[in-house]
Design a protein that fits this description.
Blueprint lengths: L1 H15 L2 H10 L14 H13 L3 E6 L7 H21 L3 E5 L10 H18 L3 E3 L7 H12 L5 E6 L5 H7 L5 E4 L14 H17 L4 E4 L3 H14 L6 E6 L4 H9 L4 E7 L4 H10 L4 H9 L2
Helix pairs in contact: 1-11, 4-5, 5-6, 7-8, 8-9
Amino acid sequence: MMVLEQPLKSFFTSLSQSKSMNKLAKKWGLKLGASQVVAGVTISEAIEKVKELNEKGLSATLDHLGEFVEERTEAIEATDHCIQTLEQIASSGVNCNLSLKLTQLGLDIDQSFCLENMERIIKKAAELGIFVRIDMEDYGHCQQTLDILAELRKTYDNVGTVIQAYLFRALDDVRALEGIPLRLVKGAYKESPEVAYQEKEKIDENYFNMIKLHLDSGTYTAIASHDHQIIDRVKAYVKEKGISHSQFEFQMLYGFRTNLQEELVKEGYNVRIYVPFGIDWFGYFMRRLAERPQNVAFALRGFFSK
């Protein structure tokens, strides 16, 4: 399996970046096992899944999936959809935030245009008392994302972003963003050795150093990982340092390691589930397979059940 793992990772990562496959997948519906990790195609379907999670003591963050937006009309539609999602989160009373990607809101078209769309979303979220997380994308969008975050934080405090541990710049970014709620992750894109660690051991160590740095600053920290070794190290660290459970949360993806999610809640930890939905599911699903090729079992079960 170790021999095959890297080629599989590269294969699925390449598929996730294929615009033609992404376009085709929109016509398929949730197939290839995607329904196990994507909570439906409509807001109402996703809200129902969030209610089920809340009943188990889990909070959530909703993400309307979307990539490769090249037209202003598409970006405006995506912005409107984010606002509709915020309104439905508020009206339903669920314990849920919103996550989004800037490329879906026009970042590749024009940064100022994207910022205008984000300001509409963040303003509405602030009115409704909802936190918004800007997902981090590939390295080429990293600085743009942080620039937009900086502009938004001048006016709003209900917005944060994500820092990826495999990037060499990650620790410096965490230091610079002290006081801003961050989701800390290992990273899910294929990046050049010029900008990112390639070895798992180095990524893991940088990841834990990021977590310690942000926790030690007293800033609210979202630790997004399914890695039980990382989770156990965090448990030991916060106990050693006397860090309150109210200062951090564990985050996991919808459909993955559900038993662990519920165990952590029983142990008294805050756990938030990242809940993706929408017809634009292909890139997200391929990146999940690339992260952990063992997840191919999802695809096989989905394929043979059709």
